[in-house]
Each structure stands twice: as structure tokens, then as C-alpha cells.
Write a structure and sequence with these properties.
- By secondary structure, this protein is an alpha/beta fold.
- It folds into 2 domains: 182 residues, Isopropylmalate Dehydrogenase (3-Layer(aba) Sandwich); 131 residues, Isopropylmalate Dehydrogenase.
- The chain is 39% helix and 22% strand.
- It is built from 11 helices and 12 strands.
- The strands form 2 sheets. It has a 10-stranded mixed sheet, sandwiched between helices.
- Helix 6 links the parallel strand 8 and strand 9.
- Helix 1 packs parallel to helix 11, helix 5 crosses helix 6 and helix 10 crosses helix 11.
- The protein is globular and about 55 Å long.
- The relative contact order is 0.17.
- The structure holds 3-isopropylmalic acid and manganese (II) ion (MN).
């Protein structure tokens, strides 16, 4: 008997559940077409639950989630909850507790019509960002001194371990090799100012690079990386960077690939349980209106299936998404697609 993939589903807040529903529709169709079995378990973590119970994540959550083959997440963030509580308490807690040390964010343009950059085509915008996902400024280290006084100082420390940096960089080189396109890894840092953190990153980067003589290794400061992403995105293949810079440049990446409606990512623990999500937020103002673009969530599902070894299904979903984008949608933005959320999901199923 073939394996049953156990998938935990966290719809989360705002439009999260709506886009995840479309993903689940696609999952069901893909499973019957590509002959695999799966089982889903829904979890109600998010703002509503927090407001009702006062609990962000139950104590059993991490233990339970560890038993799954993958986690499929919608969005976290609620207008009625102070910013930071849910993001830290759910999203970051899961990333850290499950040691999802890679945040893999493909930046891929499907149709030139949806690119804000002049004269750029799908051939020009096709790279991935490997964002370190377990350390850096996200570690939450720091302190206030003289809080509330005129002499107040706030420290926020970037925490970088050699082991943490090395496993991330190694993943990037492996990924570039497997991807087999331009075979180039660019370290995005700030060695001219952050002379501790990125000194370590740079030393480890060139040391690891020596083991990958078939992959080119280069360096760009983060500010220059932003410039090149707009001016010459075709230069990039795999960008590897720390948690904070990765957060920032992947929002820019999402914009050049057509917006938050299409940008997907995976929080990956190559040896453990990974969690896949559309990288946009919970979009409260579009909630419940059946107007949000579900393609980012559907692409996240394709990444999830790829991770589970269902490569054929993953490729078919990606191809279907490309076809729907190119042949049907008039925009990738919420409310402007020419179709509703559920109709876009149906189109992806139909083209599978
Ligand atoms: C992301 C988000 C999160 C992050 C927030 C919600 C904590 O912006 O996934 O990029 O900063 O990592
Ligand atoms: Mn972000």
C-alpha cells in the first residue's frame, strides 16, 4: 500500500482559510489524478481562537504538528490583535520549534503583463531566495536600557551561529546545483557595515563554495541586491541571505513576480516537518468577499507536494497555475482578476 501523506492544515486569519480551501480543492484533484493518498487535520490557530481563549498556541501544538509530513498554512494576523502577538506566537514559534531553518521563496514571473518592471519577461525573472529562517535578528535577543527615560537605549542583536549559517549556505549551493540553470549562488549581505555577522557569513560562504566547483559564487550588498533585482533580475539564480534581509528582499521579489497574490514560500526543515504558505498576509479588508487571489496558496501546495516526493503532481499544479495566469486572469490583484477566488481555484483544477 502506498504511503498516506499526513498534512496539518492551519487556515489561520483573514483570507487564509479562503485561499487554503482552494488549495485543498486542487490537492484533492491532484491526488486522484496522480494517484497518491493523503489525510488532512485542521487546526484553528489564529486571531479568532486567541480572542476567544486567550491562548495563542496550545501547549500540545508543536508536539502534535511534529507527527505530520507537512503543514499547510494560510495566513496569520488579525486586526483585533496587537501586531506581533500572533506572528511571534504562532508563525515564528512554529518556524523555530520545528527548526525550519530554510525559508525558500521562489521569485518567478509567469506573464510579462503582471510585471511592474519595464521590458522584463518570464525569462528574466526566475530565481529563488534562500532565507535563513531560524536565527539573525529574529532570534529576539536584546534589551532596553533606561527604558522610558531620555537616556533610553534599545538593543536588538543579530544572532548567527557558524552551524546555522553553514547549513543554510550549503542548502543554497545544493539547490542551485539541483536547479541546474545558471548555477550561481549570490550571498546577499552587508559586509561593509555589519562587520561581525556578515564577516562570518562571508567566510563560511567562500569555504562552502570550494566544495561546489560547478556552481559560481558571488557576493552583493543588500542595498545593491535590491537595485539589481529591479534593474537586472536576470542575473540571479539563487540568493542566500540572513533572516531579516531575506524578509525584506522577498517582498520586493513578490512585487516583481506579480504581487502577493502569486508569491509562495516554504519554511523547510530538510530533516523534519516543513510548512508551506502564501507569503502575503491575512488581508482583512478582502476577507470573506471571495476576491482574494488563491494562486500563491496553490503554488505553496505545489511546493508542499514536491517536498513530499509527489513531483509529478507538483509540476502539473505549477503548469496549471501558469496556464491560468497567462490565459485567463486580467490581473493578479484581489478583486481585479476577472474571476472570483473560487473560480480561480476551479480553473486550476480544470487545467491539471
Ligand atoms: C514573512 C512575514 C513574517 C516574517 C512576519 C509575519 C513575522 O513577514 O513571512 O515574511 O517577518 O518573517
Ligand atoms: Mn515578510
Amino acid at each position: 500500500m502506498s504511503k498516506v501523506h499526513k498534512i496539518a492544515v492551519i487556515g489561520g486569519d483573514g483570507t487564509g482559510p479562503e485561499v487554503i480551501n482552494e488549495g485543498l480543492k486542487v490537492l484533492e484533484a491532484a491526488a486522484s489524478k496522480y494517484n497518491f493518498k493523503y489525510q488532512t487535520n485542521a487546526y484553528d490557530f489564529g486571531g479568532e481562537r486567541y480572542l476567544k481563549t486567550g491562548e495563542v498556541l496550545p501547549e500540545s501544538a508543536v508536539r502534535e504538528l511534529r507527527e505530520f509530513d507537512a503543514i499547510y498554512l494560510g495566513a496569520i494576523g488579525h486586526p483585533g490583535v496587537k501586531p506581533g502577538i500572533l506572528e511571534k506566537g504562532i508563525l515564528l514559534t512554529l518556524r523555530f520549534a520545528l527548526d525550519q531553518y530554510i525559508n525558500l521563496r521562489p521569485v518567478k514571473l509567469y506573464d510579462s503583463r503582471f510585471c511592474p518592471l519595464k521590458d522584463k519577461t518570464p525569462e528574466d525573472i526566475d530565481f529563488v531566495v534562500v532565507r535563513e529562517n531560524s536565527e539573525g535578528l529574529y532570534k529576539g535577543l536584546g534589551e532596553f536600557k533606561n527604558k522610558g527615560t531620555k537616556d533610553e537605549v534599545a538593543l536588538q542583536i543579530s544572532y548567527n551561529t557558524r552551524k546555522g549559517v553553514e547549513r543554510c549556505i550549503r542548502y543554497a549551493f545544493e539547490y542551485s546545483r539541483k536547479r541546474n540553470r545558471k548555477k550561481t549562488v549570490t550571498l546577499c549581505g552587508k559586509t561593509n557595515v555589519l562587520t561581525y555577522a556578515f564577516d562570518l557569513w562571508e567566510r563560511v560562504f567562500y569555504k562552502v563554495a570550494k566544495e561546489y566547483s560547478d556552481v559560481k559564487a558571488g557576493y552583493a550588498h543588500v542595498d545593491a541586491t535590491c537595485m539589481w533585482m529591479v534593474k537586472n533580475p536576470e542575473w540571479f539564480d539563487v540568493i542566500v541571505t540572513d533572516n531579516m534581509f531575506g524578509d525584506i528582499i522577498t517582498d520586493l521579489g513578490a512585487m516583481i513576480q506579480g504581487g502577493m497574490g502569486i508569491a509562495a514560500g516554504g519554511n523547510i526543515n530538510p530533516e523534519g516537518v516543513s510548512m508551506f504558505e502564501p507569503i502575503g498576509g491575512s488581508a482583512p479588508k478582502y476577507t470573506g468577499k471571495n476576491v482574494i487571489n488563491p494562486l500563491a496558496a496553490i503554488s505553496a501546495l505545489a511546493m508542499l507536494l514536491n517536498q513530499l516526493g509527489e513531483e509529478e503532481a507538483a509540476v502539473a499544479i505549477d503548469n496549471s497555475v501558469v496556464k491560468v495566469v497567462r490565459e485567463k486572469l486580467i490581473s493578479l490583484a484581489a478583486g481585479k482578476m476577472g474571476y472570483s477566488t473560487t473560480e480561480v481555484g476551479d480553473l486550476v483544477v480544470k487545467n491539471l
